[in-house]
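Most newcomers find our protein records easier to grasp once they have seen one. Sequence and backbone structure share a record, each on its own labelled line. To make this concrete, we reproduce a full record directly below:
***
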Amino acid sequence: MATVATAERTTPTRGRADRKRNWPVWRWAILLIAAIYFGIPLYAGLKFAGFKAFTQVTSYPQFGSAFALSLRLAVIATVLTLVLMVPTTVYVHLRLPRVRRAMEAITILPIVIPPIVLIIGVLKVAPGWLIGTPDLLGLEYVILAMPFAYRSLDSGLRSFDVKTLVEASNSLGAGWPTTLWRVVIPNLRTAILSATVLTVALVLGEYTMASLDNFQTFPVWIVNFEQNSGPVSVAASLLALFVTWLLLMLIVTLGTRRARKYGGGEVTLFSVSTQTHQTVGETE
């Protein structure tokens, strides 16, 4: 009994020692180099723009319309991406596990294919009433966001036994829509949040397809406005970067807090740690 008590008392000490050994000096050196690599350009941009430029950004013409258009496209792309990719990814994991490698290859194509080719292909198949509207650009962003959303959702599904949960839900009399909404999606909240922020970040920073389609989104406005005022353009770029960074930090914070509270998997964009037991009853 004394030996067991001594072992229990030394367990926290061993845990702290293991955590210290998991962070050797070379990792801190890499973090320091990365901080310098990204910090110096940001500092140079802040020094060049000045803090007064941040207060002047919103007062310039077409800033509001460009930012509102980017937000509208982000909402359209995010909703359509989740509606299409969540059921598809779950179905592939449950019914077609052998197709997962093919899905990974297919979903990587939007990154490989040049944007001009995607635009021409979409224009060939798009209905006439949709051509020339911002909604068409939102559909194109769905194609661009597919690789990031699929990998995020795929990582989330790998973190728990989705097949067992679905079979348990079906044995209790729940249909497929109820199982998807009340069993699968609650276990994918962090992965869905990760896919959402990745899609929003992609839309808010995408320039090529918007410029080729002749839409003045926020990135296009920044590039066009750079010819008139360099400091204000740099300030707008830094503002967009900081907003995206805050959204990404929100992912990690919410995912970590939920994992500590419910014992779920921690999602850091593309990676998900192993998830502990999650029952069907917990989602009801």
